[in-house]
Amino acid sequence: MAVMTRPLLNRRLAEFGTTIFAEMSALAVRTGSINLGQGFPDTDGPEEIREAAVRALRDGLGNQYPPGPGVPELRRAVADHQREWYGLTYDPDAEVLVTAGATEAIAAALLALVEPGDEVIALEPYYDSYAACVAMAGGTRVPVTLRPHEGAYVLDLDELRAAVTDRTRLILLNTPHNPTGTVLTRAELTAVAELAIERDLLVVTDEVYEHLVFDDAEHVPLASLPGMRERTVTIGSAGKTFSFTGWKVGWITASPELVSAVRSAKQFLTYVSAGPFQYAIAEALRLPAAYFDTLRADLAAKRDLLSEGLAQAGFEVYRPAGTYFVTTDIRPLGADDGFAFCRSLPERAGVVAIPNAVFYDHREAGAPFVRFAFCKKTEVLEEAVSRLKQLA
Question: 0.85 cut: is pTM over it?
Answer without folding.
Answer: yes
